[in-house]
Each structure stands twice: as structure tokens, then as C-alpha cells.
Amino acid sequence: MIEALAVERKAEQNEELKERIQQLKKERNAIILAHYYQRDEIQEVADFRGDSFLLAQKAATTDADVIVFCGVHFMGESAKILAYDKTVLVPDERAGCPMADMVNVDGLRELKKKHPKAKVVAYINTSAEVKAETDICCTSANSIKVIESIDSDEIIWVPDKNLGDYVSKFTSKKMIIWEGYCNTHDMLTVKDVYEMKEKYPNAQFVVHPECRPDVVKLGDFVGSTTGIIKYCRESDCQEFIVGTEDGTGYQLRMDSPHKTFHMATKYLVCPNMKVNNLKKVVRALETMQPQIYVSPQVAEKARGSLERMLAVK
Ligand code: 13P
Ligand code: SF4
Predict the structure, then answer these.
(1) What is the 3-state secondary structure (H, E, C) of 50-116?
(2) In terms of pLDDT, which residue wins out, 7 or 15?
(3) 160 DSSP assignment
(4) If you placed Cys at 299, which of 85, 158, 258, 294 could pair as Cys (CB 3.0 to 4.6 Å)?
(5) How remote is the CA of residue 53 from the centroid of ligand 2, in Å?
(6) DSSP character at residue 274
(7) What is the mean pLDDT of residues 136-165?
């Protein structure tokens, strides 16, 4: 009984916060962009939901004055770089990406010295400074196309070794792969997947390439977050084991309310993505803080890498 009342109260509070957000959005001419890994209530209030690629594209083309970026820090930075005249707010500055922190400028420069002919491809999950040292960015949605677009047979790939391993299977180019990884996706094991397949024998396993190579190998479908969402929506299959971050369930259920989705393990939750909440969105819009800052010099160099990625067809 007390629990039910608490749930009701929370729902009421969320409704109040959502109303306040709508009001503030109008006053500030703001748009809310939310990654698919955000809490459900944030995705509900967003003007646009997407994966890293779609959100970067949206940030680059919006005519709003203010972008509230609900995701992690490198995503807000990418939005700022692509829309430098806009104010980019994040609900909480502490929402970072451990994988992005696994590569730094000094380490990358050293590797470039060792392989002077190689072109650098940086996953969008990198800092603005690393992007500025990079020839072109990519996301999990376009990584294979990006690699193929490059006029070099040698590629330095940072920072995700799992995505790097996946991409390397689609190219004859020599790939020098950094040793980074996503703590969340990397947690899923072959044992977890086998257990789920045994429990749900009719389900297809859909998996993000940030997972370990031996897990990715088991996928009935391998793709970016948007790729997984699209595949599940269009497939005739009615039941799926989902090998990507838990928040994706929101869009999967919206698109296919009659299909069944089982998260591959309860550990597939990115704590950084969940740091944001509605209260922090309200506060950001009220105070216009915290804002993302990128120095003009870094932004200019990093923008080239992002824009080259956006131009790849
Ligand atoms: P995508 O948004 O490209 O699917 O990447 C997943 C991710 O981990 C984002 O941080
Ligand atoms: Fe970074 Fe992984 Fe979280 Fe994405 S899911 S923000 S890659 S830690």
C-alpha cells in the first residue's frame, strides 16, 4: 500500500516536472535531445530521441537557441562543436563515459608517431581534444562505411577494441586498435547469452558491437542502437534477447508493444547515462547551467572530423 502510494506520488511529481520543462523550453527556445539509454521519463519529455549518430545530426541542424543534451559528456561536446553558436546544456556534468576517458591526446600522438602513414578514426565516444587529433569520427551506426571512405590502408582506431574487432572483419585495411572498451556492454558474457537462449528458445539475440567479440558472434543481428531498434520493429520474430543498454527498451516497447523483449542481463545499465533526471533538466533550463564549453581552437579542429563523418553516405 505504502509502496503504491509512493509510486503514485512519484508519477505526479514527474508530471509537474514535465509541465515545467515544457514551459521553460518555450521561454528559452530550447530543444531536448535524449540518447536511447536515458531514463524513460527523460525520453518521454525529449523532442528527439536517438543514438549517437542521429543526435549529432540533429544538433548540427536544429534552429533552437538552446540544446539540452541528455546523454553523456562527449555527446554534449559533439553538439557544441557542431552548433558552436548555440548554448548546450547538460543536466549533470558528472555524466561521463569511461570508454571516452580511456584514450588521451598524448597516447594518441605517440601512436600516430609510430604509424605516420595511418589515418585516425575516432569513435564519437572521445573527448573534443582527441577528436581534434583525428582524421574522421564514426559511430557504431556508420563505422564500416567510414572505414571504407578513407584513402589509406592503415587505420589507427580509438578507443573501442570491441567495435574495432567487429569492424576489422569487414575491411582488408590494417587496423591498429586501441585497448578501450565500454564497461557496460563489455559485461555481457557468452554464459549470460546461452542461459537466456535456453530460457527463451524462440527469441532472437540482437547485440551491439560494443559487446565482446565472442558475444557478438552469437548475434542473430548485430548493429548500433538504432540498427537494433529498426531490426526488432521490422522483423517477423516476436521475441528478442537484447544485448545492449537497458534504456533501449523504451523505444523497443514503443515501436512494438506486442513483442516481448528480454534484457540479456540485468547488468546492462550504464550508470553514467542514468545520472540525469527530470529535476536536473528543470534546473539546467532555469539556471542555464551547466553549459558545455569547448575552446574555439579545439572545436574548429574537432568539427572537421565530425563533419567529415556526417558527410559519409
Ligand atoms: P550508439 O549510440 O552509437 O549506439 O552507441 C552506444 C553507446 O554506448 C553510446 O554511448
Ligand atoms: Fe560510455 Fe558505454 Fe555508457 Fe555508452 S554505454 S556512455 S559507451 S559507458
Answers:
(1) ECHHHHHHHHHHCCCCEEEEECCHHHHHHHHHHCCCCEEECCCCCCCCCCHHHCCHHHHHHHHHHCC
(2) 15
(3) B
(4) 294
(5) 14
(6) G
(7) 97
DSSP notation for 112-133: HHH-TTPEEEEESSS-HHHHHT
* Average of per-residue pLDDT values in the chain: 96
Q: Are 232 and 253 in contact (CB under 8 A)?
A: no
- Domains of the chain (ranges; CATH) run 2-96+273-287 (3.40.50.10800), 99-180+296-311 (3.40.50.10800), 185-263 (3.40.50.10800)
C-alpha cell at 61: 541542424
Residue-level pLDDT at 206: 98
Integer-rounded Cα Rg, in Å, for the chain is 20
- Which amino acid would we find at residue 285? L
- At residue 10, the pLDDT reads 81
C-alpha 15/C-alpha 238 separation (Å) is 32
The separation between the first and the last C-alpha atoms of the chain, rounded to the nearest angstrom, is 55
* Burial of 296 (C-beta count, 10 Å sphere; 0-12/13-18/19+): exposed
State in Å: Cα 41 to ligand 1 middle. Answer: 19
Note whether 42 and 48 are within 8 A (CB): no
Q: Is the CB of 140 under 6 A from ligand 1?
A: yes
Identify any residues that bridge with 70 across adjacent strands, giving them in sequence order.
34
CA of 184 to the centre of ligand 2 (A): 6
**Pocket around ligand 2 at a 6 A CB cut-off:** 37, 72, 97-99, 125, 182-185, 245, 270, 272-273
Instruction: Summarize pLDDT for 41-91 with one digit per residue, the tens.
Output: 999 999 999 999 999 999 999 999 999 999 999 999 999 999 999 999 999
The number of the ligand 1 atom at minimal distance from the alpha carbon of 245 is 8
Other Cβ atoms closer than 10 A to 35: 26
The answer to whether residue 1 scores a pLDDT higher than 80 is no
- pTM exceeds 0.70: yes
CA 313 to each of CA 57, 125, 126, 148, 179: distance values in angstroms, whole numbers, following the listed order: 13, 21, 22, 11, 28
